[in-house]
Prior knowledge:
Shape: globular
Radius of gyration: 16 Å
Strand content: 15-25%
Number of strands: 8
Largest sheet: 8 strands, mixed
Amino acid sequence: HGKNESLYHEDVMALVRACISMGKQKVGALIVLERYQNLFNLSKSGEQIDAKISQRLIENIFFKNSPLHDGAMIISKVRIHAAGCLLPVSHDADIPKSLGLRHRAALGVSQKYDCLAIVVSEETGGVSVALEGQLYLQLTSEELEKHIMHAFSIPPEKKEKEVAAAEQPNSETSVRHAGACSSTLYRPWRTPGGLSPAGTSE
């Protein structure tokens, strides 16, 4: 399938932990995960890194004094491919004024490319996700994890213990929970069912 099909649960958790940690410290961040479309054009606008996904490296790159903290990080083929990258910004007039440039860039890149973008707000510390032109705001660590797992079709069996704890060890459990995130959905003209397995892409 796509470039990032071997994204593992440990990679997802490193990302989630880094984002939640940066949120607590109000460190702004923008991370773009390549799905089924190559993001080389975006990567070449920044510094090439090519490193294993790790919480410490992600946090170091977005630390306020880091020279790369202002741009976007691109994750491709299960590696941190580049940082300090420039992204297309959405000029959608419907975006609330309270959302800054990072949210506009995340939305813009998700409208133009097949990717998932994660934003950590410098102002509120809130973590959001942009996917297929939809913005999901103020996510918990569990919701963030589910969005990533679902976007990359990471099989629930990689998390057998958690699924068993939910008393319903079937693949629909995680999908239903992912759908529940749509209470924070900001795109009134898209159906909240945008996270369902059918019709995720247009």
